[in-house]
């Protein structure tokens, strides 16, 4: 039987109200998820982060504790006193609130097992995300017991800046692969992705997105770090090797 494919709608449009808990709003930040196979590099995203944003290598370094939280003792190299609301130093000192961010999860056109989590700063100033990657859980829709949700592997060896800077109007991306080994098969009743943009946020800010009907969910899905392009987010995802948290 032919598998029905669809694209998960973006979380918010400019005319929408504040983020709804069900995350059913459309178009966040205008970024488009570039196709990416498991063994080939994705092209650059065409959304706000593709122009005028930090370099692809910006963000956490390769040293430090293996946690999802940027090292609080580390600081940026900028001498910005905080008066410039567009710089990294300002973002490090002004962490994002849930109301500043538009969140979406969209399946890649080329692979029903890969999803792009896009977080857009819809405010007027830069802000910082205090964790290197979004908190993601996979489980059955409307499940009363979430204790058996699957949490993806993330890259190890994290360390660096005290926050991920997100400039006003720009987007950062994290890619989730629910079948990194290419096993193919079923989803075992798992049909929903729950996403929290920053680990500081309360569970009330968790957004849930229906999974593509053709997706396969394995025991150890992979999630990459926040990056400025979808291509770099895919590369980061492939290096995931430890349990989150």
What average pLDDT do the residues reach? Answer: 74
Number of E-type strands: 11
Portion of residues in beta strands equals 15-25%
**Uncertain stretches:** 1-67, 71-82
| Shape category | globular
Instruction: Summarize the amount of helix as a percent range.
Output: under 10%
Can you tell me the number of structural domains?
1
Report the sheet with the most strands, covering strand number, pairing sense and barrel closure. 4 strands, antiparallel
The secondary-structure element order is: HEEEEEEEEEEHE
Give the secondary structure arrangement, pairings included.
Blueprint: H1 88-93, E1 101-108, E2 111-121, E3 127-129, E4 135-139, E5 153-154, E6 164-166, E7 171-177, E8 192-196, E9 207-210, E10 222-223, H2 230-238, E11 242-243
Antiparallel strand pairs: 1-2, 2-7, 3-6, 4-8, 5-11, 7-10, 8-9
3D architecture notes:
The longest helix is centred in the C-terminal third of the chain and has 9 residues, at 230-238. This protein has one domain. By secondary structure, the protein is mainly beta. A hairpin with a 2-residue loop joins strand 1 and strand 2. The chain has 2 helices and 11 strands. The chain has helices at 88-93, 230-238; strands spanning 101-108, 111-121, 127-129, 135-139, 153-154, 164-166, 171-177, 192-196, 207-210, 222-223, 242-243. The protein is globular. The N and C termini lie far apart (39 Å). A 4-stranded antiparallel beta sheet has the order 1-2-7-10. Helices cover 6% and strands 21% of the residues. Keywords: Signal. This is DUF4232 domain-containing protein. Residues 1-22 form the signal peptide.
